[in-house]
Design brief:
Order of helices and strands: HHHHHEEEEEHH
Distance between the termini: 21 Å
CATH architecture: Roll
Helix content: 40-55%
CATH superfamily: Tgt2/MlaC
Structural class: alpha+beta
Number of helices: 7
Number of strands: 5
Largest sheet: 5 strands, antiparallel
Shape: globular
Number of domains: 1
Length: 210
Amino acid sequence: MSDRRSFLAGALASATLFFAGPVAGQAAGIEEAARKFIESLADKAIQALTKQEVPRRERIERFRHLFNENFAVAGIGRWILGRYWRKATARQRDEYLALFEDLMVASYVDRFTEYAGERLTITKTVPTGDGAVIVFSEIIRPAGGPPIRVDWRVGVKDQTHKIVDVIVEGTSMSTTLRSDFGSIIRRNGGKVAGLIDVLRKKTESLKKTL
C-alpha cells in the first residue's frame, strides 16, 4: 500500500446497513451535512495531528479519539473480517476489534505530519440511496504535483455521521484490508487465531516505536 493511499485507513461500504436512508426531500440537507462533517474532520485532524510541537504520545491519543468519534470502527472491522467473523469466538472478536483499532492508530498517526501545509478541497457530494453520501474531495499539495483524490463514504443516521469507507484514487481502503486479512487467514489454515497472532505481533512492534 503506498503512503498516499494510507492517508486515512479503514472503512466499509456495507456498514451503511446500520444507517437509515434519507427521504427525497431531505437529500440536499443530508449532502450539505456530510460535506460539513468532512470539512470539520479535516480541520480537526490538521489542528490535532500536524503540529510538530505536540508530543507524539498526545498525537496518538488525539488520533485514537478522532478515529473512534468519526469512523464506524466496529462495523468496519466486522466487514473487513468478512465470513470469518461468524467463525470467530466472542473472545476472538473482541481481541480482533481491539487489535484492529490499535493497528490503525499505530500505523497512521505519524503519516499526518507528512500532510502539513496541504489542504482538502471538496468537489461534490452524491447521495447513494442506501443511507450514505459520497463526499468527493482532493488533497492539494503545496509543493505542486497533481492533487490526490480522496472520496469519503459517510453513513448518516439521526443526524449522526460516521465514515464507512475511504476511497483513495479509486482504491477502497476497506477492500484492500479485507483482501490482506483474508490472505493471512488462509495462510494460517483458515483460522482467525492466525490473523489475531499476526496483528498482535504487528501492533506490539509498532507500539515499541510509540
